[in-house]
Design a protein that fits this description.
about 75% helix, about 475 residues, mainly alpha
């Protein structure tokens, strides 16, 4: 009996450990990114061979289907965030996101109509919203204030791994074994992901900002998963939450009589991270934060535009098989592995300098793509170099603008205009901006290629980056604590 109790305790410690939580969240992010990229290089061939779409309409529908993913992300992000913040455990929305991912994979693998493909990509976008919104919240609950930076760095690496391996294996499997084989690896990943999420014991949501040492980040919410949890500290946090919530909006408050004193001192409400009602409009009226949103939006538009127009352009220009087409996506994704270094560069030299360089270089590299216009080994090598450069310059935009969003919130907190919970609101807005970009980018790529052609489209995108550079120079700040808002 004693050995059995020790075994239960060891299993509990493992399932609630910081390492296991990091592993589960990063596996979920990798699975999501992998399945997103898996279909990209084979989509042009599937539309012709399986859907029997006329070749002249392929580019348009590639844009529409990739845009459907963005639409699902836009709609799913606020819903997932709202639901996850109002439920006693993040387990429910986290598992629902995986179920949606499995359903979208099934639709894309078995569907033989444009309608099913559209629904599959839309649901895939909604599931991605749950993975990133709820998953990053779980990381924040686990890591605490001092550990959130390194934790997010590993998430970036997981995304990069998925975006690199998905298109590569998708093209290889399609060429060797056919369309159905492309999704076998996806089903395996979803199965492993589901098993790991079920085993996971969720950390208790952080109800207040605490100093290091005041809170053990490995303490878990016993309501998150059946047994084995420490029942005292999480219970106090749930009672504290009920004392702060309006009595008409939460079932947790109904269990406490109105006359009962709150279980925590009234002053604790001053440190609760729940944003004040004015946080959202305050951020949207801050030029410095709007500039960060613009950078996030621009990076997303450019990236998804390239994902839309590159497969067909490469296939048409170089007459490459899906395997080679997929390999050419590798240079665009490889620089994502250096996101932690870009973050350090931003901390050292300031966000304005790094993002300015990112916008300027992205403009130059996009315009240079217009010269990739004939079939030759030299042109193929030049394309690889340009895609590697573009991946780097887009990283110079994305990583610092997310840091910039936190700097804006920090200054608002220091001025007494916002609480520290404004981080959640700021990140939610950044996620929506990225989602809007992932919707707009494919539509611009698909329709723009038909109307203007490859050369004028990439040139116009480069010129648009120069226009976006202006607010960066005017309003973006420097290192943490620098620059007005």
């Amino acid at each position: 009996m004693h050995n059995f109790d020790n075994t239960k305790s060891s299993l509990h410690d493992l399932r609630s450990s910081k390492l296991f939580i990091y592993t589960v969240v990063n596996l979920a992010v990798f699975t999501d990114s992998y399945l997103y990229g898996l279909i990209i290089p084979v989509l042009p061939f599937a539309l012709v061979d399986l859907i029997h779409l006329d070749g002249s309409n392929v580019q348009r529908w590639i844009g529409i289907l990739l845009g459907a993913y963005g639409a699902g992300l836009i709609i799913g992000s606020p819903i997932a965030g709202w639901y996850a913040d109002r439920t006693s455990s993040r387990r429910g929305p986290y598992l629902l996101g995986l179920i949606a991912l499995a359903a979208s994979t099934l639709a894309l693998s078995l569907g033989r109509t444009l309608t099913i493909y559209f629904i599959g990509r839309f649901v895939q976008g909604a599931s991605s919203a749950a993975v990133h919104t709820v998953g990053l919240a779980i990381l924040a609950d686990t890591a605490g204030k001092s550990g959130i930076g390194p934790a997010m760095g590993f998430v970036g690496v997981s995304i990069a791994l998925g975006m690199v391996s998905g298109p590569m294996l998708g093209g290889l499997l399609y060429h060797r074994f056919g369309y159905a084989a492309v999704f076998v690896s996806g089903y395996v990943l979803v199965g492993v992901d589901f098993f790991m999420r079920v085993l996971l014991i969720m950390p208790a949501p952080r109800e207040e900002e605490e100093e290091p040492g005041e809170r053990d980040p490995l303490k878990t919410d016993p309501g998150a998963y059946g047994t084995f949890a420490d029942e005292n500290a999480p219970l106090q946090r749930r009672e504290s939450r009920s004392s702060l919530a309006p009595s008409t909006t939460s079932t947790t408050t109904s269990s406490t009589p109105p006359s009962s004193p709150p279980p925590t001192p009234p002053s604790s409400s001053l440190t609760t991270p729940t944003p004040t009602p004015s946080t959202l409009p305050l951020l949207l009226l801050t030029p410095r934060f709007l500039t960060a949103l613009l950078g996030d939006l621009t990076q997303s538009i450019i990236l998804t535009l390239l994902e839309t127009i590159l497969p067909l352009h490469i296939h048409t220009l170089f007459h490459l098989l899906p395997t080679r087409t997929a390999l050419l996506f590798l240079p665009l994704s490889l620089p994502a592995f250096f996101a932690p270094l870009i973050g350090a560069l931003s901390d050292r030299h300031g966000t304005k300098n790094v993002v300015t360089a990112g916008f300027l270089l992205t403009s130059i590299f996009l315009v240079s793509l217009r010269f990739i216009s004939r079939d030759s080994a030299g042109m193929e090598a030049a394309l690889v170099g340009l895609l590697l450069s573009l991946g780097t310059s887009l990283g110079l935009i994305l990583t610092p603008v997310w840091a910039e969003a936190t700097y804006v919130v920090d200054e608002l907190v220091e001025r007494g205009e916002a609480r520290k919970g404004g981080y959640a609101t700021a990140f939610g807005l950044m996620n929506v901006a990225y989602a809007v970009g992932s919707l707009v980018g494919p539509l611009i790529g698909g329709l723009g290629t038909e109307r203007w052609g490859w050369e004028r489209l990439v040139t116009g995108a480069g010129m648009a980056c120069l226009v976006g550079l202006l607010p960066v120079v005017v309003w973006m700040g420097g290192r943490r604590g620098e620059g007005g808002i």
